[in-house]
Design brief:
Strand order of the largest sheet: 4-3-2-5-6-7-8
Structural class: alpha/beta
Bound molecules: 5-O-phosphono-beta-D-ribofuranosylamine
Number of domains: 1
Number of strands: 10
Number of helices: 6
CATH superfamily: Formyl transferase, N-terminal domain
Helix content: 25-40%
CATH class: Alpha Beta
CATH topology: Rossmann fold
CATH architecture: 3-Layer(aba) Sandwich
């Protein structure tokens, strides 16, 4: 069993492709003193991502790196890692980052890349998780924070929050209620990491 990180104030980078509401929730928790972490960098693969503007408005360094200008994923991720290392980042926080992470980033940040997924994994991995849950007819869905490996939403699960699915839920109504939970779950997991309470043993994550 290995401890992921010893207790410390974390330096965080958020990687986002879109809106950035999870980024804002993590920032708010840090500002309120609920989370012993500093949000040091917002990095996006999309020039038009609203998350970039939101970071700039808060005075947080915001960087766009266009994957299309690199010949392959390794080269793109090498540039991403260069920015992360320049800011001495402890944990890389994916929040609506619409790309699979590859060996370069995972090699540079072993056990240091997290993701949030809007379903109770391993159910409904991939895109449109909330629509998948509504269409399948499950009675409960929710969200999952997990370590990232090279698969799609397959890494060891750290914590989950359950959200009941109502009979008349649409994809949007369920997504909205799950998002409320996401905005609590992510910073709470980050705080457990900052306190040095997270251990990994194979696929299992222990909170001690
Ligand atoms: C969230 O629902 C997250 O679970 C999923 O993408 C969405 C990102 O939302 N991975 P936001 O950009 O943080 O608002």
């Amino acid at each position: 069993m290995r401890q992921v990180i010893t207790p410390k104030r974390l330096r965080l980078a958020v990687l986002a492709s879109g809106r950035g509401s999870n980024f804002l929730a993590i920032h708010a928790a840090s500002e309120k003193g609920q989370l012993d972490a500093d949000l040091c960098l917002l990095l996006s693969d999309q020039a038009a991502a609203p998350a970039l503007d939101r970071a700039r408005q808060l005075g947080i360094k915001a960087v766009h790196i266009d994957p299309r200008t690199y010949t392959n994923r390794d080269d793109y991720e090498t540039e991403v890692v260069r920015h992360l290392q320049a800011e001495n980042i402890d944990m890389v926080v994916l929040a609506g980052y619409m790309r699979l992470v590859g060996r370069v980033m995972l090699g540079a940040f072993p056990d240091r890349v997290l993701n949030i997924h809007p379903a109770l994994l391993p159910s409904f991995a991939g895109l449109h998780a909330q629509r998948q849950a509504v269409d399948y007819g499950v009675k409960y869905s929710g969200c999952t924070v997990h370590f990232v490996d090279q698969g799609m939403d397959t890494g060891p699960i750290i914590k989950q929050a359950v959200v009941p699915v109502e009979d008349d839920d649409s994809e949007d109504s369920l997504a909205q209620r799950i998002l409320v939970q996401e905005h609590q779950l992510y910073w709470q997991v980050l705080q457990l990491l900052a306190e040095g309470r997270v251990y990994i043993e194979g696929r299992k994550v222990h909170i001690i």
